[in-house]
Each structure stands twice: as C-alpha cells, then as structure tokens.
Amino acid sequence: MKDFILKSVSFIFHPLIMPLLGVLFYFSKTPRYIPEPVMKAKVFSIIILTIILPILLFFLLKTINKVDTIYLKTTKERVLPLLINSVIITLILLRVMTPNEIEELFYFFLGILISNLLCLFLAFYGIKASIHMIAATGFFMFAVGIGIHFKININGTIALTMIILGAIATSRLHLKAHTNQELITGVCTGLLPQLVLLKFWL
Predict the structure, then answer these.
(1) To which H or E segment does residue 152 belong?
(2) Whose CB has fewer CB within 10 Å in the chain, the N or C terminal residue?
(3) What is the rounded CA–CA span in Å between residue 92 and residue 113?
(4) Which range has the top average pLDDT, 50-59, 76-85, 87-96?
(5) Whole-prediction pTM value?
(6) Burial track 139-177 (b if 16+ CB lie within 10 A, e otherwise)
(7) CA angle, 86 as apex, 80 and 90 as ends, to 5°?
(8) What is the rounded distance in angstroms from the CA atom of residue 78 to the CA atom of residue 120?
(9) Are 146 and 132 in contact (CB under 8 A)?
(10) pLDDT at residue number 5
C-alpha cells in the first residue's frame, strides 16, 4: 500500500504537468485583465506542447529503444528527451509565451528552459538530477514570485507546495529512484534559474 501511494505521488506530480500548473496558477492570481479566449488558447497550447506532444514523442523513442521508462532512469536515456524538450520550450517562448504579451510567463518558461539545459549539461557528464524536484521547485519559486509581484497572500499555496515537495522527495528516495545528492541537485537546478530571473519581472 505504501509503495502504491508513493508511486502515485511520483505519477500525479510528474514534471510534465508543472508548466501547466504554473500557467493555471498565474491566470488564477493575476489582477490584470486577460481576455478569456486568450487564456484558453494559451492553456490549450501548453497542454499540447508540454504534455501531449512529449508523451507521443516518448512512445516514439521507446519504440526505437532510445528510452526505457518515462522516468528516464539513466543519464544516457535523458539526453535525447531533454534535447527535444529544449526545442519545445524554445518554441513556446517564440510563439506562445512571448515577452511582449505576458512577461511573467515568458520568464517562467525561460527559467524552465535554463533548468532543462542545465539538466542536459549534467547528464552529459553522467550527473543525474531529479527532474521531479527540478519541476516542482521551479513552480514553487515562480509562485513565490507571483505572490510578491502582485502583493497577494499565497501562504496556502506555499504550504501546499512544501508538502508536495516533501512527498515527492520521500517517494523518489523510497522508490530508490534518486539519492539525497541527486534530489539536492534537482532542487538547485530548478530553483536557481527562477530565482535569478525574478529581477527581470518583479
């Protein structure tokens, strides 16, 4: 039962959903007027590009024996998916979340791209960072930035995200998917780019 719960945590809070959570969080908190059709179009584009397309590409890579599981357990497995994801995020920055439309989300996705490239760089050197922690801590830092930027109370979101971070870390350790060092590397890789970029939009 415990294994099932921990595996469920890893699945529910898979890195693929974190960009979408960031977009939904922003639209739910921003005091700015954004036409509903624009919000729906952005959300739909993010679902297609960050969830559906990567899943389809994963099955393609699995078919040609380039990856084994969606969790990318080895650094060798990570290289091609991370390269592809970098291209997808770049496309989002150029076509979906441009800086002249929604500046905050542009920098959120720029942070995601930087974290992705850092993870790729580490993979080339055989260093494995927790992609779960990269995604979750990146969202956490962005949420904190939104709270400061719009001067709104997001204490509930921060508390819930901290619980989720703890649950993800516990599940990855219990399932022997990562070591403590790999989790810490993931936290730094996800958190620092978002933190550094705050100065450009706060």
Answers:
(1) none
(2) N
(3) 10
(4) 87-96
(5) 0.93
(6) bbbbbbbbbebeeeebeebeeebeebbebbbebbbeeeb
(7) 150
(8) 7
(9) no
(10) 59
